[in-house]
């Protein structure tokens, strides 16, 4: 439940690009293994950014498919499954291998016309791409701003039209406050699942301290407050998705608002829990919206800081348009290759 991978039970996963930095999370172990060259591809899943965030901080490609594209046994509204790798081609090969629905699934995505592998290197056409570099909480880090602007210029050099346009609902300041009643309920559900697995109620010693705090200390909500929050979120989702009904094909954003942070800054120290919660909410600002909408999104490692830390940029397509993300991703990878960059720690 954190944008880092440093469980107290097993110790921190270190970022291969800088060992004092976080990999983000929650698929940070997968991303560290791929970035360090231990494996070419690793499983990852994404309920608020957990494919795209660690991909951005580890210099990898992270594709979150549309809701229902890959069968998920839990049928969770926001969670999707796929993988991370170093190239668009490799992530696409995984998607070809695993996409599809089971008869008992709640969510279905439209079937692709052909293989996704055929989209790698295919001409995407001249696209209209909106760009968002603002947040509802303040300015983004200068390096993340530079990365997104550089990506926009690269897209323009490839013949696409980039303009400042985005779903206004993404900047709605009520996005966080109106959904608070859903937070504790979601964490409590995790504890219930653990209780069933253990055959007893979980104790404080069984749970990471930050999750325990979320599940037990956040204000409880009434049933009416919970339903009201769900209704607000569904209406907000419609406001976001409506933007793709217009002339725009893709949305370009930073993947994360800041470069990889230190492991120390993400430690779940008791008196810093509220501060950590705010930090996590800001980390998922550009990613979690598209778990709510169910749209596909991809993070690409197009930028590095002067210190050599990777920064990802995100492209978001309309529901079911992984093909478009694969085409534009492979076009950008060819125009500005990243495959030869290696982190400090590499097999």
Spatial order of the strands forming the largest sheet: 1-3-2-7-8-6-4-5
What low-confidence regions span 5 or more consecutive residues with pLDDT below 50?
none
Question: Hey, roughly how much beta strand do the residues contain?
Answer: 5-15%
In terms of quaternary structure, what is this?
single chain
The CATH class of the largest domain is identified as Alpha Beta
Helix content estimate:
25-40%
Reading the helices and strands in chain order gives HEHEEHEHEHHHHEHHEEH
Describe the sheet with the most strands. Answer: 8 strands, mixed
Could you say what the CATH topology of the largest domain is called? Amidase signature (AS) enzymes
CATH superfamily of the largest domain: Amidase signature (AS) domain
Task: Give the helices and strands, then pairings.
Elements: H1 28-35, E1 41-46, H2 52-58, E2 61-64, E3 80-85, H3 88-98, E4 128-131, H4 142-157, E5 161-163, H5 174-177, H6 180-198, H7 209-217, H8 223-241, E6 250-254, H9 273-283, H10 289-293, E7 297-304, E8 310-317, H11 322-335
Helix pairs in contact: 6-7, 6-8
Brief rundown of the structure:
This protein is of the alpha+beta class and 347 residues long.
What does this molecule look like?
There is one protein chain. The protein is α+β, with helices and mostly antiparallel strands. The protein has 2 domains: 1-165 and 248-347, Amidase signature (AS) domain (Amidase signature (AS) enzymes); 172-247. Helix content is 35%, strand content 13%. It contains 11 helices and 8 strands. An 8-stranded mixed beta sheet has the order 1-3-2-7-8-6-4-5, with helices on both faces. α6 (180-198) crosses α7 (209-217) and α6 packs across α8 (223-241). The protein is globular. The mean pLDDT is 95.
